Amino acid sequence: MKQLYTLLLTLSLTIVFSQIPAGYYSSATGTGYTLKTQLYNKISPHTTLVYGSGLWNLFQISDSRPDGYVWEIYSNCNFVFGSVANGGQQDDGTQGTAECQRFNKEHTFPQSWFGGQVYPMYSDAFIVMPSDKKDNGMRGNLAYANVNPSVTNNIGNGWKIGSCVTTDYPYSLDVFEPIDQFKGDFARNYFYVATCYENLISSWQNLNPSGDTVLDGSSDKVFEQWYLNMLYSWHVADPVSQKEIDRNNAIYTVQGNRNPFIDHPEYVLQIWGDALRTNSFDASSVSVYPNPSNEHKINIDSQIIVDTIQLININGQLIIEVKKPVFNNNSYTLENIPQGFYFLKLCFDNKSSTKKVIIN
Predict the structure, then answer these.
(1) Cβ pair 229, 168 in contact under 8 A
(2) Spatial distance between the Cα atoms of 312 and 291, rounded to a whole number of angstroms
């Protein structure tokens, strides 16, 4: 127990004063997938943790809420760190049939997607996070995505399971939608996996049906287009938080590597920008005003006659769709828009352009 206390104290002091080490990203000078490979060479390989004690001990530093309870991802429970024998609630193989009984270790990128108990992925703290045992079991290995808003859930912190409404989802499998608070965290987890395991991930596509809906079988782009678009929208809508920064620093002290997309969120667009712009037309040919708007409407000036206008909220839900919109004096108008943050998607001849829109 004294050794554990010393370890926790050392980690605590390290984290208080830690920051991105000088020169850590000095080799990250490229763009596109070249930059991704440069980051791969920096963060992989790393120190492999013990799945049990290594993660349990780390969680007490990396995932502690300001009030001292476990900062877990699927419920609103006040879990206590430590073993059951010592008054804690970490999973001991019992209970977990109802919420708030036990917390365990959730592979946000499911382990079945990379072949099971395969190291170092199996114990990589950047993708393994504390979660309520009951909720974790209900998620299983479902892909994260946006669920039909009509679905409700009377347990958990607001997560949902149901049919997917993410734009361009081409499958019939159900998906799991986490709360908005963690969507950016999970997106950056996935960009980390795509980078840290660049040498392996192309072989994972067919290991699991849910994983197959997400992975494209490549080692560079990694994700299917619908999923890459969604991850990027989550990344933008839920920016890096202090919690993620602290967690990144804590993991670095024991794994010896960092999540580059927490330290440098701009790397996502620098790496996947071309893929995200696939089949797009020149954004400079479109202007949106007023933006932000205080009038619940926007005007869209375009040098191109578009086929469809879509307004999509940050959860990926289609709010407004206008096919063959009326084009007056090189301009379109959308009215009666609810307050919120949106992605405005203009489609033309199988190409598209997307703009961010804020309605106050």
Answers:
(1) yes
(2) 16
Give the DSSP per-residue string, 19-55.
-SPTTTTTT----HHHHHHHHHHHHSS-PPPPTTHHH
Bridge partner list, 144: 176
Residues of the chain with pLDDT under 70: 1-18, 277-285, 350
Contact (CB, 8 A) for 202 and 194: no
**CA–CA dist 350, 36 (Å, integer):** 29
Provide the pLDDT for residue 136: 98
Q: Could you tell me which residues come within 8 angstroms of residue 5 by beta carbon, excluding any fewer than 6 positions away?
A: none
| Secondary structure of residue 128 in the 3-state scheme | strand
Question: What pLDDT sits at residue 12?
Answer: 39
Which candidate, 118, 272, 120, 125, places its Cα nearest to that of 185?
125
In terms of Cβ atoms closer than 10 Å to its own Cβ (0-12, 13-18, 19+), residue 97 is exposed
What single letter denotes the amino acid at residue 259? N
What DSSP character marks residue 84? G
Tokens read off for 215: 């992975």
Q: What is the predicted pLDDT for the residue at 2?
A: 30
Calculate the alpha carbon distances from 234 to 39, 90, 174, 227 in Å: 22, 30, 19, 10
* CA distances, 228 to each of 93, 249, 351 (Å): 36, 26, 17
Distance CA 5, CA 9 (A): 6
Can you count the helices (H) and strands (E) in the chain?
Answer: 10, 11
SS3 298: strand
CA dist 79 → 1, 228, 284 (Å)? 20, 33, 50
- Rounded Cα distance between 253 and 63, Å, is 14
Instruction: Check if the beta carbon of residue 64 is closer than 8 Å to that of residue 8.
Output: no
Helix ranges (H only) for the chain are 2-17, 32-43, 53-62, 133-139, 180-196, 209-214, 225-237, 242-255, 260-263, 267-276
Torsion angle of C-alpha atoms 208, 213, 214, 217, degrees rounded to 10: 70
What token pair was written down for 105?
């270790």
Q: Which two tokens stand for residue 217?
A: 């079988």
Q: Taken in order 174, 346, 315, 276, is the CA torsion positive or negative?
A: positive
